[in-house]
Design goal:
Number of strands: 12
CATH class: Alpha Beta
Distance between the termini: 17 Å
Largest sheet: 8 strands, parallel, barrel
Strand order of the largest sheet: 1-4-5-6-7-10-11-12
Length: 255
Amino acid sequence: MRGGHGRRVKLYPAIDILAGNAVRLVRGDFDASKVYDEDPLSAAHGWTSAGARQLHVVDLDGAKAGEPVNLGHLRRIAGEVGVPVQYGGGLRSAKAVGDALAAGAARVILGTAAFTDPGLLEEVLAAHGPERVLVGVDVRAGNVATHGWLETTEAPAHEAFAELRERGVRHFVFTNIDHDGMLDGANREEVMWVARAVGDGSLIFSGGIGTLADLEGLAALRGELDLEALEGVIVGTALYEGRFTVAEAHAALAD
């Protein structure tokens, strides 16, 4: 998963599923959702036909319910688009993780369960290997948020990374909830410390991407500071709003 010099930062168009629709939230607020496509598969086809090489799918209903709700949509997407799909939301049991992988997910993302059920994380890593299991570290005001971003813990984000690495996690998705959907850019210092916090693992960054300059900044950081851990970036609202195209994003992310 880690790339050598010259490898570009990967683009992960986001497909967040709520009540059967592809939506975007603002700062994780379920009451501030905007529907961009009534069929998540249609959204997936839109991104892949535009050149997307991988997709990031989140089951928002599942995150709230504590178990997957939209595996049917995952199955349709993974079965038709022909690119790797990573999937998260409500994966809080070994069965749920297995069901998501069986439905076609190339990789799964554990969020809440990674912080509330250490035994499950150990079981899933052993069963499927660290390459297929990412942990989502979602942060609000510096602390880890869980349960579909509805609860904020007392755990500082920087401590969470160290503990998760000790438990065998190598691949992470980081989201700054305060910036998610805000299109206000990625904080350079935040990207640097998170990329270094994952050590010899990999990081997919999410939250606040609004312009091509934001993407160019991430690519420059990776090259200038040798942040090999910075594997990818998740982009949602900016793509849906037409701020730039998938092709333009790929060009901006090239080293």
